[in-house]
Amino acid sequence: MREQILDSLQQKGDLPPLPKVLLELQKLKNDPDCDVDDICRLIKSDMVLTGKLVALANTVFFSGGRERADDIEEAIVRLGIKMVLDLCYCVEVPKAFKEIKSFDQTQFWKHSLAVSYLTRLLANELLEDDDSLEASFLCGLMHDVGILVFDYLVSEKYYDFLNNKDIENSDQSLESLELKTFGIDHQELGAMFLKKWWEMPSLVVEAVTSHHKDYIDEGKEIILAEILSAANKLANENEITHPISTRYENVSSEDFIKRAGISQEELENFIDQAKLGILAFDCLFES
Protein backbone atom coordinates (compact mmCIF):
# COMPACT_ATOMS: atom_id res chain seq x y z
CA MET A 1 0.00 0.00 0.00
CA ARG A 2 2.87 2.39 0.74
CA GLU A 3 4.19 2.18 -2.81
CA GLN A 4 0.72 2.76 -4.25
CA ILE A 5 0.26 5.86 -2.11
CA LEU A 6 3.70 7.24 -2.95
CA ASP A 7 3.14 6.61 -6.67
CA SER A 8 -0.16 8.49 -6.47
CA LEU A 9 1.53 11.32 -4.59
CA GLN A 10 4.22 11.65 -7.27
CA GLN A 11 1.59 11.84 -10.00
CA LYS A 12 -0.44 14.33 -7.99
CA GLY A 13 -3.73 13.15 -9.48
CA ASP A 14 -6.62 14.97 -7.85
CA LEU A 15 -4.55 16.57 -5.09
CA PRO A 16 -5.52 20.21 -4.69
CA PRO A 17 -3.00 22.80 -5.85
CA LEU A 18 -1.96 25.61 -3.56
CA PRO A 19 -4.63 28.29 -4.14
CA LYS A 20 -3.52 30.81 -6.75
CA VAL A 21 -3.68 33.78 -4.43
CA LEU A 22 -1.32 32.01 -2.00
CA LEU A 23 1.11 31.24 -4.83
CA GLU A 24 1.14 34.91 -5.76
CA LEU A 25 1.56 35.95 -2.14
CA GLN A 26 4.54 33.61 -1.80
CA LYS A 27 6.14 35.25 -4.85
CA LEU A 28 5.55 38.73 -3.45
CA LYS A 29 6.87 37.71 -0.05
CA ASN A 30 10.12 36.52 -1.64
CA ASP A 31 10.46 39.65 -3.81
CA PRO A 32 12.76 42.20 -2.12
CA ASP A 33 11.06 45.00 -4.08
CA CYS A 34 7.58 44.06 -2.84
CA ASP A 35 5.75 46.58 -0.66
CA VAL A 36 2.42 46.81 1.17
CA ASP A 37 0.68 48.27 -1.87
CA ASP A 38 1.59 45.20 -3.95
CA ILE A 39 0.10 42.85 -1.38
CA CYS A 40 -2.98 45.03 -1.03
CA ARG A 41 -3.60 45.01 -4.79
CA LEU A 42 -3.28 41.23 -4.94
CA ILE A 43 -5.69 40.62 -2.08
CA LYS A 44 -8.21 43.13 -3.51
CA SER A 45 -8.32 41.07 -6.71
CA ASP A 46 -10.14 38.39 -4.69
CA MET A 47 -13.30 39.94 -3.27
CA VAL A 48 -14.19 36.94 -1.09
CA LEU A 49 -10.74 36.88 0.53
CA THR A 50 -10.89 40.65 0.98
CA GLY A 51 -14.22 40.39 2.77
CA LYS A 52 -12.96 37.63 5.07
CA LEU A 53 -9.85 39.56 6.07
CA VAL A 54 -11.80 42.74 6.80
CA ALA A 55 -14.28 40.71 8.88
CA LEU A 56 -11.42 39.11 10.83
CA ALA A 57 -9.78 42.49 11.42
CA ASN A 58 -13.02 43.67 13.03
CA THR A 59 -13.43 40.74 15.42
CA VAL A 60 -12.80 41.45 19.10
CA PHE A 61 -9.70 39.23 19.00
CA PHE A 62 -7.96 41.26 16.27
CA SER A 63 -9.47 44.73 16.72
CA GLY A 64 -8.49 45.24 20.34
CA GLY A 65 -11.43 47.59 20.79
CA ARG A 66 -10.31 49.94 18.03
CA GLU A 67 -12.65 51.59 15.52
CA ARG A 68 -13.99 49.52 12.65
CA ALA A 69 -11.70 48.84 9.70
CA ASP A 70 -13.78 49.71 6.64
CA ASP A 71 -11.55 48.34 3.88
CA ILE A 72 -8.64 46.02 3.20
CA GLU A 73 -6.10 48.85 3.46
CA GLU A 74 -7.17 49.57 7.03
CA ALA A 75 -7.34 45.85 7.81
CA ILE A 76 -3.74 45.33 6.64
CA VAL A 77 -2.52 48.27 8.72
CA ARG A 78 -4.28 46.84 11.78
CA LEU A 79 -3.19 43.24 11.34
CA GLY A 80 0.30 43.75 9.94
CA ILE A 81 1.73 42.08 6.84
CA LYS A 82 2.88 38.89 8.57
CA MET A 83 -0.49 38.29 10.19
CA VAL A 84 -2.29 39.04 6.93
CA LEU A 85 -0.21 36.41 5.12
CA ASP A 86 -0.91 33.83 7.85
CA LEU A 87 -4.63 34.61 7.80
CA CYS A 88 -4.74 34.25 4.02
CA TYR A 89 -3.57 30.66 4.51
CA CYS A 90 -6.22 30.15 7.21
CA VAL A 91 -8.94 31.31 4.81
CA GLU A 92 -7.74 29.63 1.62
CA VAL A 93 -6.27 26.26 2.64
CA PRO A 94 -9.51 24.79 4.09
CA LYS A 95 -11.27 25.69 0.82
CA ALA A 96 -8.67 23.71 -1.10
CA PHE A 97 -9.68 20.57 0.81
CA LYS A 98 -13.43 21.19 0.87
CA GLU A 99 -14.23 17.83 -0.78
CA ILE A 100 -13.20 15.85 2.31
CA LYS A 101 -16.18 13.80 3.55
CA SER A 102 -14.61 11.30 5.96
CA PHE A 103 -14.75 13.51 9.06
CA ASP A 104 -15.82 16.88 10.45
CA GLN A 105 -13.63 19.47 8.77
CA THR A 106 -14.78 22.29 11.04
CA GLN A 107 -13.45 20.51 14.11
CA PHE A 108 -10.32 19.54 12.18
CA TRP A 109 -9.48 23.15 11.26
CA LYS A 110 -10.32 24.51 14.71
CA HIS A 111 -7.75 22.11 16.12
CA SER A 112 -5.24 23.18 13.46
CA LEU A 113 -5.87 26.85 14.29
CA ALA A 114 -5.35 26.20 17.99
CA VAL A 115 -2.04 24.50 17.26
CA SER A 116 -1.10 27.45 15.01
CA TYR A 117 -1.68 30.00 17.75
CA LEU A 118 0.05 27.90 20.41
CA THR A 119 3.06 27.21 18.20
CA ARG A 120 3.47 30.90 17.43
CA LEU A 121 2.98 31.98 21.05
CA LEU A 122 5.52 29.44 22.32
CA ALA A 123 7.95 30.25 19.51
CA ASN A 124 7.78 33.97 20.30
CA GLU A 125 8.61 33.14 23.90
CA LEU A 126 11.39 30.60 23.28
CA LEU A 127 13.03 31.22 19.90
CA GLU A 128 15.06 34.05 18.41
CA ASP A 129 15.65 32.74 14.89
CA ASP A 130 13.62 34.89 12.46
CA ASP A 131 12.97 32.05 10.02
CA SER A 132 11.59 29.80 12.76
CA LEU A 133 9.39 32.58 14.11
CA GLU A 134 8.05 33.33 10.64
CA ALA A 135 7.28 29.65 9.98
CA SER A 136 5.70 28.93 13.37
CA PHE A 137 2.06 29.75 12.59
CA LEU A 138 2.13 27.89 9.27
CA CYS A 139 3.59 24.81 10.98
CA GLY A 140 0.55 24.59 13.21
CA LEU A 141 -1.93 25.12 10.39
CA MET A 142 -0.33 22.44 8.21
CA HIS A 143 0.67 19.86 10.82
CA ASP A 144 -2.16 17.39 10.09
CA VAL A 145 -2.46 18.00 6.35
CA GLY A 146 -1.34 14.41 5.75
CA ILE A 147 -4.73 13.23 7.02
CA LEU A 148 -6.37 15.23 4.23
CA VAL A 149 -3.91 13.88 1.69
CA PHE A 150 -4.72 10.32 2.76
CA ASP A 151 -8.38 11.05 2.07
CA TYR A 152 -7.57 12.33 -1.40
CA LEU A 153 -5.19 9.54 -2.46
CA VAL A 154 -6.96 6.48 -1.02
CA SER A 155 -10.35 7.92 -0.17
CA GLU A 156 -12.42 4.75 0.23
CA LYS A 157 -9.71 2.83 2.05
CA TYR A 158 -9.02 5.72 4.43
CA TYR A 159 -12.74 6.19 5.06
CA ASP A 160 -13.04 2.51 5.96
CA PHE A 161 -9.94 2.83 8.14
CA LEU A 162 -11.33 5.79 10.09
CA ASN A 163 -14.75 4.24 10.53
CA ASN A 164 -13.46 0.95 11.88
CA LYS A 165 -14.48 0.63 15.53
CA ASP A 166 -11.17 -1.11 16.22
CA ILE A 167 -9.42 2.18 15.41
CA GLU A 168 -11.59 4.24 17.76
CA ASN A 169 -11.06 1.76 20.60
CA SER A 170 -7.38 1.08 19.97
CA ASP A 171 -4.75 1.91 22.59
CA GLN A 172 -2.30 2.70 19.76
CA SER A 173 -1.80 6.15 18.26
CA LEU A 174 -3.42 7.13 14.97
CA GLU A 175 -0.03 7.44 13.27
CA SER A 176 1.00 3.95 14.44
CA LEU A 177 -2.21 2.46 13.06
CA GLU A 178 -1.76 4.32 9.77
CA LEU A 179 1.77 2.98 9.49
CA LYS A 180 0.56 -0.56 10.16
CA THR A 181 -2.30 -0.31 7.66
CA PHE A 182 -0.81 1.82 4.87
CA GLY A 183 2.95 1.62 5.38
CA ILE A 184 3.11 5.39 5.93
CA ASP A 185 1.65 7.79 8.48
CA HIS A 186 0.09 11.24 8.09
CA GLN A 187 3.24 12.96 9.38
CA GLU A 188 5.44 11.61 6.59
CA LEU A 189 2.76 11.83 3.91
CA GLY A 190 1.85 15.41 4.80
CA ALA A 191 5.47 16.52 4.83
CA MET A 192 6.11 14.93 1.42
CA PHE A 193 3.05 16.62 -0.03
CA LEU A 194 3.98 20.04 1.37
CA LYS A 195 7.52 19.78 0.07
CA LYS A 196 6.73 18.49 -3.42
CA TRP A 197 3.51 20.21 -4.39
CA TRP A 198 3.10 23.26 -2.16
CA GLU A 199 6.81 24.09 -1.82
CA MET A 200 6.55 24.92 1.87
CA PRO A 201 9.67 26.17 3.72
CA SER A 202 11.98 23.41 4.93
CA LEU A 203 11.31 24.36 8.57
CA VAL A 204 7.60 23.68 8.07
CA VAL A 205 8.26 20.36 6.34
CA GLU A 206 10.68 19.22 9.06
CA ALA A 207 8.28 20.13 11.87
CA VAL A 208 5.30 18.42 10.22
CA THR A 209 7.39 15.26 9.75
CA SER A 210 7.83 14.85 13.50
CA HIS A 211 4.93 16.60 15.19
CA HIS A 212 4.04 13.47 17.18
CA LYS A 213 7.60 12.89 18.34
CA ASP A 214 8.23 12.88 22.09
CA TYR A 215 11.33 15.00 22.41
CA ILE A 216 13.70 14.23 25.26
CA ASP A 217 15.75 16.90 26.98
CA GLU A 218 19.34 16.09 26.07
CA GLY A 219 20.71 19.52 26.87
CA LYS A 220 19.95 20.69 23.35
CA GLU A 221 18.29 23.96 22.44
CA ILE A 222 14.55 23.90 21.88
CA ILE A 223 13.71 23.89 18.17
CA LEU A 224 10.57 24.72 16.19
CA ALA A 225 9.67 21.06 15.58
CA GLU A 226 9.71 20.43 19.32
CA ILE A 227 7.49 23.44 19.94
CA LEU A 228 4.98 22.19 17.34
CA SER A 229 4.90 18.81 19.06
CA ALA A 230 4.22 20.48 22.41
CA ALA A 231 1.56 22.80 20.92
CA ASN A 232 -0.26 19.81 19.44
CA LYS A 233 -0.26 18.08 22.84
CA LEU A 234 -1.45 21.23 24.59
CA ALA A 235 -4.38 21.62 22.19
CA ASN A 236 -5.41 18.00 22.74
CA GLU A 237 -4.99 18.26 26.51
CA ASN A 238 -7.29 21.28 26.54
CA GLU A 239 -10.00 19.53 24.53
CA ILE A 240 -9.26 21.31 21.24
CA THR A 241 -8.87 18.07 19.35
CA HIS A 242 -9.46 17.09 15.76
CA PRO A 243 -12.27 14.59 15.07
CA ILE A 244 -10.02 11.55 14.60
CA SER A 245 -8.76 9.91 17.75
CA THR A 246 -7.98 6.63 19.46
CA ARG A 247 -7.68 5.69 23.12
CA TYR A 248 -3.92 6.18 23.00
CA GLU A 249 -2.62 8.47 25.73
CA ASN A 250 0.08 10.83 24.55
CA VAL A 251 3.03 11.76 26.70
CA SER A 252 2.06 14.88 28.61
CA SER A 253 3.34 18.33 27.62
CA GLU A 254 4.27 18.93 31.26
CA ASP A 255 7.95 18.08 30.90
CA PHE A 256 8.30 20.45 27.94
CA ILE A 257 6.56 23.28 29.81
CA LYS A 258 8.94 22.84 32.75
CA ARG A 259 11.97 22.68 30.49
CA ALA A 260 10.84 25.81 28.64
CA GLY A 261 10.31 27.72 31.88
CA ILE A 262 6.71 28.60 31.06
CA SER A 263 4.73 29.55 34.17
CA GLN A 264 1.23 28.25 34.79
CA GLU A 265 -0.11 31.78 34.37
CA GLU A 266 1.62 32.16 30.99
CA LEU A 267 0.37 28.77 29.88
CA GLU A 268 -3.22 29.54 30.80
CA ASN A 269 -2.94 32.84 28.93
CA PHE A 270 -1.68 31.03 25.82
CA ILE A 271 -4.57 28.57 25.96
CA ASP A 272 -7.08 31.40 26.40
CA GLN A 273 -5.62 33.27 23.43
CA ALA A 274 -5.83 30.15 21.26
CA LYS A 275 -9.49 29.65 22.19
CA LEU A 276 -10.31 33.31 21.51
CA GLY A 277 -8.46 33.09 18.20
CA ILE A 278 -10.66 30.18 17.15
CA LEU A 279 -13.80 32.17 18.01
CA ALA A 280 -12.63 34.90 15.66
CA PHE A 281 -12.92 32.41 12.80
CA ASP A 282 -16.55 31.44 13.44
CA CYS A 283 -17.54 33.66 10.52
CA LEU A 284 -15.42 31.47 8.24
CA PHE A 285 -16.61 28.12 9.56
CA GLU A 286 -20.24 29.11 9.19
CA SER A 287 -19.93 30.14 5.57
Summarize the biggest pleated sheet. none
Q: What is the H/E string?
A: HHHHHHHHHHHHHHHHHHH
Quaternary structure state of the chains depicted: single chain
- Whole-number radius of gyration? 19 Å
Give the low-pLDDT segments.
Answer: none
- CATH class descriptor name of the largest domain: Mainly Alpha
CATH homologous superfamily annotation of the largest domain: Hypothetical protein af1432
What is the number of domains? Answer: 2
The total count of helices amounts to: 19
Apparent shape: globular
Main structural class: mainly alpha
Level-2 CATH architecture of the largest domain: Orthogonal Bundle
What is the end-to-end distance? 37 Å
Strand percent estimate: under 5%
CATH fold node name of the largest domain: Hypothetical protein af1432
Helix content: 55-70%
Care to count the β-strands? 0
- Mean pLDDT across all residues, rounded? 89
Task: Please provide a written account of the structure.
This protein is mostly helical. It contains 19 helices and no strands. Helix 8 runs antiparallel to helix 9. The mean pLDDT is 89.
What's the topology here?
Blueprint lengths: L1 H10 L8 H10 L6 H9 L2 H11 L2 H4 L8 H8 L1 H16 L8 H22 L3 H13 L2 H9 L1 H8 L2 H4 L5 H9 L3 H11 L5 H8 L14 H14 L16 H7 L3 H17 L1 H4 L2
Helix pairs in contact: 2-3, 4-6, 7-9, 8-9, 8-16, 8-18, 9-15, 9-16, 10-11, 10-14, 14-15, 15-16
Short description:
This protein has 19 helices and no strands. By secondary structure, the protein is mainly alpha-helical.
